[in-house]
């Protein structure tokens, strides 16, 4: 919690439904600020979207970092409009820039089945699915080191390297073990594939063992990624904190929320735990061009991301207030959006949550 409880936040809605769910995220933040007594300085930015690209030939201005300036956090919607800009350009020139430039080396996603959200896994209810996925966010399999030789010929060769550094691996593992310490079960599961990926993954496994010895009060185990994905579906109650490399974490952090219902409610945080630059909070879902403009997008992923941001600030009571409001509204069909078989539109659902926050 900052001394004056005043938070400067860059607000970047992005594309598609990002522009529709962001106002609901902000409405929830404002309701929480007045109910829980902190203040907000919200700075809206109209870049990191594909309209900006159409006008300027790039997703962000060259001086984007200066324009964002010294903020406590970035509140982000969703980016991408594949009809105008290919996804690999829109994402690399926006969200991936933020992650790398701000050294947001942890991507954190809660996987929790909320009451009122139908679970695609037979026989599972709230309480059966409650864990965190901690994804390494700055190195690993997502590197631009490699080469492409003899393109278009029979001799064509492509190579892309995985980069793991001891510094990069250790810091995300420590974050996962620290997180496990805050939980009742105190258990870390590591995603590996050291039976097939014979250099980087055995290194990863070795670092898990080494860091694990620093946390004698936290138990840990490991699964190969193939069987781990099966276990997410078959035995989700087995997990507490799951830590994974960039690629494996990417896969698990979509599979997890899908097991817990809909990606429309799932939040995420890109965290710089050292506090040397701002962290970024965004829903898991993308810009959803198929439903954009219809006003039916589920705003809960954006609003839950606001709760994660407030928790990051140390505003725990406000974060809990938002979560209680989400749970109350999702419990009724009139509060839920069509993806959850409800009748509410984006604004109706968002307003109901904000009213519940105000009355918390
Ligand atoms: P990414 O941007 O990560 O590549 P994507 O484009 O593959 O994601 P999304 O944009 O997240 O995927 O959409 C996937 C599906 O989920 C679409 O059918 C979309 O309509 C639906 N969806 C995504 N977010 C929401 C939401 N907030 N409310 C309702 N439906 C959603
Ligand atoms: Mg997309």
UniProtKB/TrEMBL annotation:
E.C. number: 1.1.1.83, 1.1.1.93, 4.1.1.73
Domain Isopropylmalate dehydrogenase-like: 8-353
Catalytic reaction equation(s): (R)-malate + NAD(+) = pyruvate + CO2 + NADH; tartrate + NAD(+) = 2-hydroxy-3-oxosuccinate + NADH + H(+); (2R,3S)-tartrate + NAD(+) = 2-hydroxy-3-oxosuccinate + NADH + H(+); (2R,3R)-tartrate + H(+) = (R)-glycerate + CO2
Functional pathway: Carbohydrate acid metabolism; tartrate degradation; 2-hydroxy-3-oxosuccinate from meso-tartrate: step 1/1; Carbohydrate acid metabolism; tartrate degradation; 2-hydroxy-3-oxosuccinate from L-tartrate: step 1/1; Carbohydrate acid metabolism; tartrate degradation; D-glycerate from L-tartrate: step 1/1
A Pfam family of this chain: Iso_dh
Keywords: Manganese, Metal-binding, NAD, Oxidoreductase
Cofactor names: K(+); Mn(2+); Mg(2+)
GO MF: D-malate dehydrogenase (decarboxylating) (NAD+) activity; magnesium ion binding; NAD binding; tartrate decarboxylase activity; tartrate dehydrogenase activity
SUPFAM superfamilies per record: Isocitrate/Isopropylmalate dehydrogenase-like (SSF53659)
Family: Belongs to the isocitrate and isopropylmalate dehydrogenases family.
UniProt-listed NCBIfam families: TTC
Task of the protein: Has multiple catalytic activities. Apart from catalyzing the oxidation of (+)-tartrate to oxaloglycolate, also converts meso-tartrate to D-glycerate and catalyzes the oxidative decarboxylation of D-malate to pyruvate.
The protein, known as: D-malate dehydrogenase [decarboxylating]
């Amino acid at each position: 919690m900052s001394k004056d409880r005043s938070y400067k936040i860059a607000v970047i809605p992005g594309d598609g439904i990002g522009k529709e769910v962001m106002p609901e995220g902000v409405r929830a933040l404002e309701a929480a600020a007045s109910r829980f007594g902190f203040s907000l300085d919200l700075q809206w930015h109209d870049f990191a979207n594909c309209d900006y690209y159409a006008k300027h030939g790039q997703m962000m201005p060259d001086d984007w970092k200066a324009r964002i300036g010294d903020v406590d956090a970035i509140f982000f919607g969703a980016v991408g409009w594949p009809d105008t800009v290919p996804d690999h350009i829109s994402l690399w020139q926006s969200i991936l820039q933020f992650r790398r430039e701000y050294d947001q080396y942890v991507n954190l996603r809660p996987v929790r089945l909320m009451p009122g959200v139908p679970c695609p896994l037979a026989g599972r209810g709230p309480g059966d699915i409650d864990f965190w996925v901690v994804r390494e966010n700055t190195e690993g399999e997502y590197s631009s080191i490699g080469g492409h030789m003899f393109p278009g010929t029979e001799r064509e060769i492509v190579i892309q390297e995985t980069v793991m550094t001891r510094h990069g691996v250790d810091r995300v593992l420590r974050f996962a073990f620290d997180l496990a310490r805050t939980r009742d079960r105190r258990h870390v599961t590591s995603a590996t594939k050291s039976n097939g990926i014979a250099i980087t993954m055995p290194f990863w496994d070795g670092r898990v063992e080494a860091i694990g010895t620093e946390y004698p009060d936290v138990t840990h185990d490991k699964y190969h990624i193939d069987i781990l994905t099966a276990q997410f579906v078959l035995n989700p109650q087995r997990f507490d904190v799951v830590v994974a490399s960039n690629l494996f974490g990417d896969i698990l952090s979509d599979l997890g929320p899908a097991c817990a219902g809909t990606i429309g409610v799932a939040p995420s945080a890109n965290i710089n735990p050292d506090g040397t630059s701002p962290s970024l909070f965004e829903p898991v879902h993308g810009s959803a061009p198929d439903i954009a403009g219809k006003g039916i997008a589920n705003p809960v992923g954006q609003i839950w991301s606001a709760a994660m941001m407030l928790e990051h600030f140390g505003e725990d009571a406000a974060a809990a207030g938002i979560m209680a409001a989400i749970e109350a509204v999702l419990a009724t069909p009139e509060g839920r959006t069509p993806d959850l078989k409800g009748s509410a539109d984006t604004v109706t659902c968002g307003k109901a949550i904000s009213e519940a926050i105000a009355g918390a």
